[in-house]
Amino acid sequence: MITFEQALDQVTKASPTLGKEKIPLLESLGRVLAQNVSSDIHMPPFDKAAVDGFACRRADLEKPLEIVETIAAGKVPQKIIMEGKCAKIMTGAMLPEGADCVVMVEETRLLQDGKVKVLNQKTKNNIAYKAEDIKSGEVVLQSNTLIAPQHQAVMAAVGATEIMVYQKARVTVFSTGDELVEPEQQPEQGKIRNSNGIQLVNQAGRIGCEVRYGGIIPDTAEDSERMIREAYAWSDVILLSGGISMGDFDFIPAVLQKLQFDIRFQTIAVQPGKPTVFGRSGNKFVMALPGNPISSFNIFELLAKPMIYRLMGFAYTAKRFKFPLAVDYKRKRSARLAFIPAILDDDGVNPVGYHGSAHINALSAANVIFEVPIGATEMQKGDKVHVRFI
Asked: Domains in the chain, please, with CATH?
């Protein structure tokens, strides 16, 4: 059995990056940049007004100013600002030649003769200067950036409309076990609905994978080998849930070894999620997660997610925050690092009613999981604990 930190090191170090492809900017959300993005222009491309007001010469602010033109955003100024002159200007409009400041409308008064009087002669310049944000040729986004809407806005501004990104990881999801039926079926006696399948499909889909659902693998070595072998050719990653403990019908580890997967670990000192198998065959990866739904959910978030993101070029590291416990917390066994569903509110971290890793509804009420370190059996109200948002 290895520690969680050792398992995380194994899955992230093992992950090479996938190939690259060029896609349209509009389709780039959630993808990972495979090259730097540089600007093809200065930004701003010209000196421009930062406020609505009057473009004028600072030397003239003590005297009434004649308005020589109105400059709308997107228009090129037609007049040069000479002594005693100004131009009415809109936010974002090009600054006219001769002007060295823009006085806000609120700091002026229109006189009866149509001239403008400046009320605050110590006004700021209120100018966004050419290239003060970005210079032409400057790198605006680094390779390996996970693209969010704000990154798309930057790329749009610099004319990057065809984006080089890493390919999506192709993931096949299986559930295992004769006790499972699909959600649309009414379970017979001794059967349960397959909840892990849809959970894992959408956890993988949420991080930008191309996902196939492979179905339920029956509890036979022959079916396990056949279905995993069929998925192998298409997949970068195969995710399975169940079939990896010590039961008479848990065939998955033996099947993976037969299919030439190099098994890197089979048990981790975490709770829930101890029986987790990770293996590699060339540039193909398999992660077999425990069958209980909270275990499956946690291990995907803790280990599969950073591993898959690395394949797609993004060095994902989970964000951990410290918050106080809202109540006392106790557990009987402390040999493993525990990840417990909880609700974070104004009072702090409140563990949800949790009856073990099969308690499927516990996660639906939770917004965080908090960590209980190895060796800790009791934690007091007010103690700071690490949490991860879910």
From this structure: 4-17+167-311 (3.40.980.10), 22-43+134-166 (3.90.105.10), 48-128 (2.170.190.11), 321-389 (2.40.340.10)
